[in-house]
Amino acid sequence: MRFLKTLMFGSLLLVANSALANECELTIDSNDNMRFDKKELSVPASCSEVTLKLTHSGKMAKNVMGHNWVLSSASDMQSVVQQGMAAGLDNNYTPDSDAVIAATDVIGGGEETSITFSTDGMDANGNYKFYCTFPGHSAIMQGVFKITN
């Protein structure tokens, strides 16, 4: 009986840890219609790191309809987008800038990529945006990223 109780308690801890880990893992899809499937993403403040998986459910190549996922403060978005265009596809349309909190590679149809980034310095009162920096995409491919208490 004692073994059974210990086994059950251990299983509950494993489930609790898995649930916490899953809260820190996000997935977002992009497509050939220049759309993300989510307008808002959030993680609890307890996540010291976040893993984001970006998928592209379209069919077009990355040089035609490529997408990435870039995170910055909302106030830095336009600057990052403009600098990203100058950076070009070889640099994933992402500038080498401290304003970029996280960024994935540019992917094309049928591809996926992921990134793990630290939330150090981010807080629940912050105003964060995610967006695609492929030229012309950020106008509609954007959303809000929140840290929740």
Structural summary, described in words:
- By secondary structure, the chain is α/β, with parallel strands linked by helices.
- It has helices spanning 2-23, 62-65, 77-87; strands at 25-30, 40-44, 49-56, 70-73, 102-103, 112-118, 128-131, 142-148.
- The chain has one domain (25-148): Cupredoxins -  blue copper proteins (Immunoglobulin-like, Sandwich).
- It has three helices and eight strands; from the N terminus they run αβββαβαββββ.
- The strands form two sheets. Strands 2-8-7-4-5 form a five-stranded mixed beta sheet, with no helix packed on it. Strands 1-3-6 form a three-stranded mixed beta sheet.
Q: Briefly note the structural class of the backbone.
A: alpha/beta
Mean pLDDT: 90
Instruction: Measure the end-to-end span.
Output: 39 Å
Number of E-state strands: 8
CATH architecture: Sandwich
Helix content: 10-25%
Low-confidence sequence ranges: 3-19
Classify the beta-strand content into a percent band. 25-35%
CATH class call: Mainly Beta
